[in-house]
Amino acid sequence: MTQQVLGGTQGTETAVAFTVAVKTFGAVRAVDGIDLRIRTGETVALLGCNGAGKSTAISLLLGLNEPDEGTVELFGASPQRAVRAGRVGAMLQEGRAVPRVTVRELVAFVAGRYPAPLPVAQALELAGIAELAGRRVDRLSGGQTQRVRFAVALAGNPSLLVLDEPTAALDVEARHAFWASMRAYARRGHTVLFSTHHLEEADAYADRIVVIDRGRIVADGTAEQLKRSVGGGLVAFDLAGRGTEGLHLLPGVRSLEVRGDRARLRTDDPDATVVALAELGAIRGLEVAPASLDDAFLALTAREDSRAESRVKSRVESGVAEAA
Predict the structure, then answer these.
(1) How far apart are CA 160 and CA 126, in angstroms?
(2) Which one, of 261, 212, 246, 262, lies nearest residue 48 by Cα?
(3) 2-222 and 232-290: identical CATH topology
(4) Which CATH architecture has domain 2-222?
(5) What pLDDT does 9 receive?
(6) Residue 99 scores a pLDDT above 90
(7) DSSP letter string over 216-249?
(8) Cβ neighbours of residue 300 under 8 Å, at least 6 residues apart?
(9) What does the mean pLDDT of the chain come to?
(10) What is the pLDDT of residue 3?
(11) How many Å apart are CA 285 and CA 189, to the nearest integer?
(12) Lowest-confidence pick of 63-77, 98-112, 193-207, 279-293
């Protein structure tokens, strides 16, 4: 039984399973009891601030580290076994260019380590680097090297593709080309897990978003579910020479930001805020927008107010339950 989703074909088999996984480094609980299930065919974004635990979770998933407590499984087996079976491909942030080998030679070498690899030409085409096949890897630009890493991750035709900050060092055009390639791969029924600091990428390309903060999962749902969880929205208007005095006291307003001659109000009740602005005659250039993924992410990872995190997480879980 399968279900059609944005990224591809979503199955009922579990590709990734974290069960109360814990990993500590001294007094730091980098991963603090993570429970997570990802089904085959899903494209999942992993979000979190620096130090939130994303990289440690990925290292557990790839078998580079062992959990101190709990378990991590890929396709019902240990990560090491899944990797040895050629079911996992990874594109990590760190890695040195191999000297004196061409792009084609490198991808062919990696492909040869897998039981059923992609044809080298196809891996290069998917990664958008067919024209670089004869170039030496150690003479490429940062963006080109990043795309070579993507080709290497694809080379074995893995069932699970793990991408850690995959668009780092890519310009706008290369980023669009990368995501087109990733979606083409996902549409074949492959599972994709990627971490990113570009929230618009998670919003546009993930079937599901998992937010980690302080080693714990604080939200898990679609982009729309996360946005709805924080409620409210943005109300912006032209100041037209008037001051900002009293704007922060308007109904629903949580914060006020001024950019040039334009005020931006974050509000829990956009309707009430707009009515109050109309009474003040301050509606020139009025813009009302729903909460964004940035708003949801900031609310979920607000370290100064853990109670807000609990409230937002509860609303996300309620939204997921209703959608199910």
Answers:
(1) 16
(2) 212
(3) no
(4) 3-Layer(aba) Sandwich (3.40)
(5) 52
(6) no
(7) EEEEEE-HHHHHHHH--EEEEEE-TT---TTGGG
(8) 211, 213, 218, 219, 226, 309, 312, 313
(9) 88
(10) 36
(11) 46
(12) 279-293
pLDDT on residue 309: 43
For tokens 């890493």, name the residue. 149
Q: What is the pLDDT of residues 223-244, one digit of tens each?
A: 999 988 877 889 999 998 888 9
304 to 54, 151, 301, 307: CA distances (angstroms)? 20, 41, 9, 9
For residue 139, CA distances in Å to 43, 97, 171 come to 32, 9, 18
* Residue (of 218, 181, 183, 171) closest to 52 by Cα position: 218
User: Structure tokens of 33?
Assistant: 């009891």
Q: In angstroms, rounded to a whole number, what is the distance separating the alpha carbons of residues 94 and 52?
A: 18
Q: What span, in angstroms and rounded, lies between the C-alpha atoms of 226 and 319?
A: 9
Predicted TM-score of the model (pTM): 0.80
Fold of 232-290: Alpha-Beta Plaits (3.30.70)
Whether residue 132 contacts residue 103, with contact meaning beta carbons closer than 8 Å, is answered with yes
Q: Largest alpha-carbon pair distance within the chain?
A: 71
Question: Domain boundaries in the chain?
Answer: 2-222, 232-290
Q: Tokens representing 14?
A: 């579990």
Answer positive or negative: Cα dihedral of 225, 228, 230, 233: positive
Q: Answer for the pair 265, 235: CB distance below 8 angstroms, yes or no.
A: yes
* Residues paired with residue 25 on neighbouring β-strands, in sequence order: 28
pLDDT tens for 22-44 read 999 999 999 999 999 999 999 99
Nearest to 160 by CA among 89, 71, 104: 89
Instruction: Indicate if the pLDDT at residue 263 is higher than 90.
Output: yes
